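As a warm-up, study this chain.
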Amino acid sequence: MNILVDERKAQGAARRVAIIGGGFGGVMVAANLTRGEFAGEIDIFETAPLGGGVAYADTGEWQLNVRADRMGAFADQIDGFYRWLVRNGHEYEASDYAPRALYGRYLAEIATDTLRGGGEADGVVRHRPSRVQSVRVAGSGGGYLVEAEGAAAQRYDAVVLCVGLGPPRELAELSAVHGDRRVLDSPWRVSRYDAIRRRDPVVIVGSGLTALDAVAELERRGHLGAVTLISRRGITSRPQVSPLPVALPVTAFADLLKPGTTLKKLVRLVRAMIAHEHARGGDWRSVIDGLRPITAQLWRRLDERERARFVARLALWWDVHRHRAPPAVHAALERGLSSGRVEVLAGRIVGAKGDDTALTLTLAQRGRSALIHRRASWVINCTGPSPDPRTWGNPLLSDLLMRGLLQVDSLPLGVRTDQHGRPLGADGEPAPSLFVLGSLRRADLWESIAVPELREQAASVADCLIALDAAPAKR
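Now compare it with the structure written out below.
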């Protein structure tokens, strides 16, 4: 039973909705609302053009790491992006990994159609190009007061937080060179690579998918200098393959879903399934991809201690197998390794200093006592976004945390939410008609940053809002 239906009598209709953030999540919540039966007002607060976001705005030729026919933005049209490519004359196959920039254009078109009222409902959708400073409970009248820069607070019946990814992690080991222009903290902004000369030595901190994207970007630019990737384990993201192996059905994972299955047993069962696939001539990707529909279910069954153990010991291994590199991107890494131009080191940075000519990093390699040094003209931080919203420097999130409307989980991975994406307060109760979408939900879902998960969340939140809107207005 949908518990939101029971709340409609108390809350009244959701006639005015504020969506904070206009990247994938914000655009797709609005688009799903207009496709449905929502006939109220929708305001999307976003200072940038709608549909861009960090992942698609300044990414040059960087590729999506999911094939085109599985990147549709609507949950019921997973091939929608590929059909958009064909319709607009872009010559890609269904199995190709298209540029991120094209995906940004696809989302921008959905945003434009949504603003024009391209759905079935008779509601009004507006883009508010301003930054929201605070969201407060409205009081006895219900709903929330949303205050944006330069405007008086407005009341909304529901609010959806779609604030995207956090800023890059701040690396304590680079604190001595903090603020140095030669340290690139936003690896997705390819315009920052313009300053890198062809023979400049580069150190990349991290060896996951973004690090491999950075290696491929340097190769595209004809870079000939030495490139060092440094990460704790020195493990790189595994490649996608073509044809993509068929994911195992959910029924194949019945043993994993049995009550009381511990993390240790989960790992043992998954390894056994991978070994079985190899023995029958299959591929480990079939197992990992088959886990995708039940990842959140398995994660929720782990207690806090086991979740912490997974994050500390297993998350890295999961990420490099789950978030795989497009074939062309992984091939760029292989060429660099084969030529000796690229090296991957397992270890950590223990010192950093800069002078007028270069940055010098001191590295402690895993399993070795002797320290080594690398001189670099540029350091690129590819360790990923910070998961802890308390470190984001986002005034709105800081305000919501202070007011108790958001609670950070213990690990921390994001904020605590219920199964509908409503944030839980200190008392464990969900905030009425307040929803969270995207990376902030990792605490509850684990996987919550990729399009296949986000499109499901956007559709679910829209369904919840439509259910509230269908309630009789409060008398």
